[in-house]
Amino acid sequence: MSVPPRVRSRLIEETDLERVVDLLVRGFPTRGRTYWQRALGRLGAHAGPRGLPKFGYLLECGGAPVGVVLTICSSLPGDGRPAVRCNLSSWFVKPAFRTFAPLLISSAIVHKNATFVNVSPAPHTEPIIEAQGFSRYSDGQFVTVAALARPPTVPGIRLLDGCRVPDVAFEAAELELLRAHASYGCIALWCMTPERAAPFVFRPRMVNGVLPCTELIYCRDLGEFVRFARPLGRFLLKRARPFVIVDATGPIEGLAGFFFRGKRPKYFRGTRPRLGDLAYTEIPMFGL
């Protein structure tokens, strides 16, 4: 009598990467092999917290890969001490093994003291995500022409390339964050008052393939983005990107624009993330 092959979940190792690419191409065929090779290359170069997965988890049956979930684990600037966040990304299981998908996700969310986020759930997976203990923290997206915001009340504001060192007070961890995201193809900027430098990251996007815009990837808080929206918006307008997309729970006070409820909602499990912080997620790192 033959014994059925064992299905198990385990960490992805360096030697698994080509087989992982094969799975991801099958699961997300519109992305292509080069896209996934670049994504895994960036994961390999990313310095995540010690003890957390480097790439994610593989589901195996009899030694053959049948499922995958990528994890982007990061230590982020926070109040008092860095916060650990893990972005679950690119979840795919072959159809014949879908009943084992919870085993894969259970492995990925087992780590204590980390907040888990899903920033690109397919609509049909949202009930599954909620059943796994995830809750929404962004209900949609707000689109604004930031250049039309009110002028800042603080005089002497300057913008500086995010890869450069400001000549006013700044956080070293934020300089590292800006430089990393510039290397991913994002627009990284310091907005400087005479006293302090505020970090901002925007990802260039084309909506529906025709409308040039940017997506807010990182700021200290949305109030700071509202405060400096006009100079930031003028900078982006000069680069032919007048619209800025911001994750939100409704219209943003102080900015003119439109809120699209249900557009690209975001989910979390753990400590509620800040709106305006998608640093080191698949959106800037993979170019989602």
Parts with pLDDT < 50 across at least 5 consecutive residues: none
**How many discrete domains?**
2
Oligomer designation: single chain
Query: What is Rg?
Result: 20 Å
Question: Which band does the percent of strand residues land in?
Answer: 25-35%
CATH architecture of the largest domain: 3-Layer(aba) Sandwich
Nearest-integer average pLDDT: 91
Helical run tally:
8
Query: Which descriptor suits the 3D outline?
Result: elongated
Main sheet makeup: 12 strands, mixed
The overall strand count is 12
H/E order of the elements?
A: EHHEEEHEHEEHEEEHHEEH
From the N-terminal CA to the C-terminal CA, the straight-line distance is: 47 Å
CATH class of the largest domain: Alpha Beta
The name of the CATH topology of the largest domain is Aminopeptidase
- Which strands sit side by side, in order, in the main sheet? 1-2-3-4-5-12-6-11-10-9-8-7
Can you give the helix content as a percent range?
A: 10-25%
Q: Which structural class should the secondary elements be placed in?
A: alpha+beta
Architecture overview:
- It is a single chain.
- With 288 residues, the protein is of the alpha+beta class.
- The chain has two domains: 7-113, Aminopeptidase (3-Layer(aba) Sandwich), CATH 3.40.630.30; 140-266, Aminopeptidase.
- It is 25% helix and 34% strand.
- It has helices at residues 17-27, 33-45, 101-108, 126-131, 172-183, 222-227, 229-238, 282-286; strands spanning 7-11, 56-61, 64-76, 83-93, 115-118, 135-145, 158-161, 187-192, 197-207, 211-218, 243-248, 257-269.
- Strands 1-2-3-4-5-12-6-11-10-9-8-7 form a twelve-stranded mixed β-sheet, with helices on both faces.
- The longest helix is centred in the N-terminal third of the chain and has 13 residues, at 33-45.
- The radius of gyration is 20 Å and the shape is elongated.
- The N and C termini lie far apart (47 Å).
- The model has no long low-confidence stretch (mean pLDDT 91).
